[in-house]
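USER: Write out one fold?

ASSISTANT:
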Amino acid sequence: MRRNIAIALALALTLSAGACGSASGQKANTAAAVEAVEAATAPAEAEANDTGAELNGTGATAAGTELNGTESNAAGTEEETEEVTTVSVAAKTPGIANRKPLAGTEIKITDIEPLMIGQTENKEAATGCTVLICEDGMRAGLDVRGGGPASRESQLLNPLMSAQMVHAIVLAGGSAYGLGTANGVMSYLEEKGIGYDTGYALVPLVAQADIYDLSVGDSKVRPDPDMGYEAAKKAFESPNYQDGNFGAGCGASVGKVAGMDCAMKTGIGSYAIQIGELKIGAIVVLNALGDVYDWRSGTQIAGFLTEDHKALRDTVEYMSSSIEVKDNKFTGNTTLAVVVTNANFNKTQLCKIAGMAHDGYARSINPVHTSADGDSIYAVSVGNVAADQDLVGALGAEVVSEAIIRAVYNSEGAYGLPAAADLQ
């Protein structure tokens, strides 16, 4: 009976944490929840011999925080590190297979038609691109919150601009070098007879945003027009979207406040739900400076690693060791997302929905929207279902947060960077 009460209290506190607007807020609000779950599940943990949660979600447990005292924190105090900054992820991964949406039912991102998605990547060079195409065009909005974006045709999505549709959105690696990828997408669309008719030529309207992945693989190899052409061709002829180390997520990583030595491999992730006729989903390329959290529990699931790569540290706490101005915070970041819905919205409404979807970043990444990130979210409408704008914006934040979790747990360690699965 006491165990059930403790679990109920933990769940209540966890839901409260999920409503917070930032990951740091979640951590503060869920501390009691973590303690309650630890107390309630201690017998089960002993019985399971501390095997912990598995990535497939079939053995997830609510084990409490396991501390590792071998690392020193940013202030150099080993005792504080043991209690605060070093968090083992063993026995605490929430899994992804059994997670349920707060409302509706889970569907695949590819179930939101007529959107078509193609991906290409160069695994050796650790870079790639993901192309989203709607043959008849899609209404789109954009909200950029990070201080260092690499983008193309962003002003096209400003509600004051004339164009009401775009034909494709490209997510790619290569930082600003990769922006030529859209040229290849345009070439393919032109061959297919897709574009804005100017009277003299069809001009495909293609927006693009890139992550910085030059710190892994081969920095001299970047996505280019050939890669964009191939991804667009795949979108039409053999759609091949999948989560993990693919497409624009090939070279993605997180937890880079101290450089790549303590960074962690992530990738691209997706999540989508359906409520009645309404469908909404998100694709996220997770490449943040900061740490990543399960937005429902407040548990850190990826980010800044200890020097032995066995546990996670807190990026903000590490940064707090000194208030000295830092001119270059290792600008190798940027998290990108596309929120897709079959609801009928115009550019102005989609810009607002994209802004609301940034709450998904704030719940799941800390720090987020820094000067060293180029955090951007596109919101696109590919259908005519009547739905409430604020509901879709709120759901947009949820699907973004869940897509972030998929990006963590579907990625594999590569280029010397461990993934979540390697820390179990």
Notes: Residues 13 and 33 are 5 Å apart (CA to CA).
